[in-house]
Every structure is written in C-alpha cells, then in structure tokens.
Amino acid sequence: MNAREFLGEVQRAIEAELDRLVPADAPHAARTLHRAMRYSLFAGGKRIRPVLCIEAVRAVDPDLAGAVTPACALELIHTYSLIHDDLPALDNDDFRRGKPTCHKVFGEAMAILAGDALLTLAFRVLSAHTQAPAERVARMVAELSEAAGTPSGMIAGQVADLEGEGKTPDAALLETIHRAKTGALLRASVRFGALYAGAGMEEYAALSRFGEHAGLAFQIVDDILDVEQTSEALGKTAGKDAEQKKITFPAVYGLERSHEMAAEQRRLAGESLHGFGERAARLLALADLIVERTA
Q1: Would 122 disulfide with which of 11, 76, 186, 284, CB 3.0-4.6 Å?
Q2: Phi, then psi, of 12 in degrees rounded to 5
Q3: How many domains does the chain have?
Q4: pLDDT tens-digit profile of 218-244?
Q5: What is the largest CA-CA distance in the chain?
Q6: Residue 66, C-beta contacts closer than 8 angstroms, at least 6 positions apart
Q7: CA Rg, the chain, in Å?
C-alpha cells in the first residue's frame, strides 16, 4: 500500500468517527450550531493531525487499537481554530477549502459559537471516550491544552502573528510565531500518539523531535504555497500573507531558501525516527507528503 492509499484509508476512519462524534441529528436547540460545526468539519480537510497521531501509535505499538477517537480531538481543535482565524476580526477570509467560510454562511455569532463548541467537545472526547488508562488520558489532556493555548501554544502564536503584521520581517519573531501557531499542534499530534501508546522516554523524545521538524516543514510549505499557488488551487485566498504584511518564511528568507529549509526539516524529521525502523515507514511517508504537497 503506497502513501496515498494508506492516507485515504486512515482518513476514511477519521471521517466516520467525526460523523459519530458530531451527529447531524442534534436536539432542536443545537441544530443550527451542529450544522455550522459540521459545515466546517466536513469541508474537505486533509486530517493531517489525527493521521499523524494514529501513525505515531502504530510506530510505538502496531497492534494497539482505539486511537482514532482521541485523534479526532485534534481535528476538532484544528477546525475550531480555522473557523475563528477566518473571522473578520482576524484574517477576514471569505473562503476556506474552496467553500465560503463558516461566518459567511452562518453569520459571525454562530461561527464563533461553532468554534467554541468544537473546542470544548475536543476535551469531552478525550476525557469521556478515550480507551486508555486514566493517567495517560490526563497527560493527553494536558498536552492538548498546552498546545492549543498559551503561553507557547496555538493561541499565543496567533497573537504573535496578529501583532507582527506590518513589522519588518524578522527571523526570531518568525520562529516564535510558527513554532506556536502551527508547530505546537502538529507536534502535539505525534506526542498524542506516543502518550496513548505508552511510549517510553526515548520513543517519546524521538517522536517529539519528529513532530517539531515535520511541523516546521508544514508551515514553511504553507507560506511558500501562499506565494506560488492560485486561490483556486489552495481553496482560499492566495497572496493574503503579503497583502496583510505578515511575517512569513518567504518574506524573511526568500522563496529559494524557504524551499531548502523545508527539505532540511524533512531530512531532520526522518533522522529522528531511525530507532523505529520499519514501524516508522508511514510517518516518514507523511513527512514526504507534507513537503511535496501543492495545496
């Protein structure tokens, strides 16, 4: 099975579990809210974060089942962040994944509440539906809250990104923004798998390094695509970073060096997993897809 085939297989399992966790037949009072949640949740995402989690589990313990449910908590958090990031007060985007953004369809108030609901549901999923010892679940809850929040998680990165608009591109600020805004949740995705599978200290550290390098590669490529691709290819407004004068890898290093840096992060990600042998083959394939993607 090649990388595209196994990715499709895992994505289908994630889609089915998300459908179970966020049902369409919600009580009347929550019906519109669930429509808004599902609108963004099933808008065609790649599910990279939960896939990374599931494949990290496989790298530690290929026979361990049940990882798809906690992995979905990562996708709930990611989707909430996209809904809020698209709001007029933040990036003010009209399109996401080729469709009108949540607030364009349901209004700003409902979009805010849909994001809030996805965020809180993620922790309910972890605490109530995860088949793992209580100690591991507690560590996973702590990991997710740190990665999604502050002082060094996703929300902190979004604040740094917002406050960095219009400033002179600076390498130190760039690293601060992206290690938090995108990198923290991607790293947490791999750590999630390690924690769920009961990884030892060395395995956990190695997977953490992989997550850091793969996460940084993901963001570098994201910044490159915003420059090189069209809005149609991306499914969102291209060139928005430059228009809003955001601090990005191409803005700081230029496109050629940014491509080199993405490849270097891919190499370092691969080196992090040498101790896993063939068990890490799918994670390595995912790192390749992250760097080689065109949207």
Answers
A1: 76
A2: -65, -40
A3: 1
A4: 999 999 998 988 777 677 777 777 777
A5: 53
A6: 130, 131, 132
A7: 18
